[in-house]
Amino acid sequence: IMPAALALGEARGIDGRSLLDALTIGLETACRVGGWLGRSHYDAGFHQTGTSGAFGAMAAAGRVIGLDAQAMPHALCLTATRAAGLKSQFGTMGKPLNAGFAAEIGVTSTLLAEGGMTSASGALEDAQGFGPTHAGSANVHAFDSLGETWLFPGSSYKFHACCHGLHAMLEALRVLGEGGIDPDTVETVVIRTHPRWLAVCNQPEPIDGLAAKFSYRLTAAMSLADIDTAALDSYVTETCVRPDVVAFRDRVTVITDDGLSDTEACVAITIGGQVHEASHDLATPMEAEVLDARLAAKSEALIGASSAADLRETVTTLDGTSSLSGLARIVGIA
């Protein structure tokens, strides 16, 4: 959503407030379409980033260029015939490419509609529309109170550069690690998680960095070995074959627990015969100060302290900025 809105926004010369407005529309659209498609869509093998994300990117792009009430539905329905993304790509370059495709589809559908391209009006919900043909749940309540209440502020943040399904576990490990853990004393690690994640991010012995992002055992070992799970360059082949990391990995067991929600995880570490436990639920509200500090740390891990400081300053003043060039430069599209 952000790349689509920023690229098109810079090309059209919009200001910072207009970009924020477009992002708001795009993010909410993605959340609402995601809720309409439902869990059945994801469980069937579709990657919501590539599917509902494409609709969000299109809504943001359409807002940027000011598509009217006649053109916007055509842009949405053109998106429906192209939106795609499969979970089978997880652990490969194809997974992040789903996000790139979604951004491109959003921009292309918007520009086509602006140029007069039309589409079938029932391309989303008709019998041969996107929802029915992509295992959508057709949850009509997903659009209740649209324009009155907002769903996207409730989305949880990614503080680690890996699959979201691993984050509750990593946060629980973070709590356990606050007291300090001597790696050599760890006997076993048992992770309890919701069953749905086993088909998503439970690659037991990943051999490269992309696969590592979808491995409970490997990312747990990285955390215990004090490897920064927020940094992209931590997820490399060298990490996967490091002897101490592999030794940790082989002490980790993943089990399922139907009593947990899909945002929860529990971790038990045995040290010297004593079991130390912690749990985390990603749905737990986070204090604003804590969130701010975690986002700052994540951005520094991704782009370095200097660039992170520049990005922070640019974002916090975006509402009063007349040009998007500074933001485009920092994120590398200019």
Q: Which blocks of ≥5 consecutive residues have pLDDT under 50?
A: none
Helix content: 40-55%
Structural class by secondary-structure content: alpha+beta
Question: Can you summarize the main beta sheet?
Answer: 4 strands, mixed
Arithmetic mean of pLDDT: 94
Strand content: 5-15%
Instruction: Output the helix-strand order.
Output: HHHHHHHEHHHHHEEEHHH
Shape: globular
Radius of gyration: 21 Å
The total count of strands amounts to 4
* Alpha-carbon distance between the two ends: 17 Å
| Helical run tally | 15
The strand order across the widest sheet is 2-1-3-4
Describe the structure.
With 334 residues, the protein is an alpha+beta fold. It contains 15 helices and 4 strands. It has helices spanning 2-12, 16-43, 52-65, 71-80, 94-114, 130-133, 167-177, 198-201, 209-212, 216-224, 237-241, 243-249, 288-303, 305-316, 325-331; strands at residues 186-193, 252-256, 264-271, 274-281. A 4-stranded mixed sheet has the order 2-1-3-4. Helix 14 runs antiparallel to helix 15 (325-331). The longest helix has 28 residues, at 16-43. The radius of gyration is 21 Å and the shape is globular. The relative contact order is 0.13. The model has no long low-confidence stretch (mean pLDDT 94).
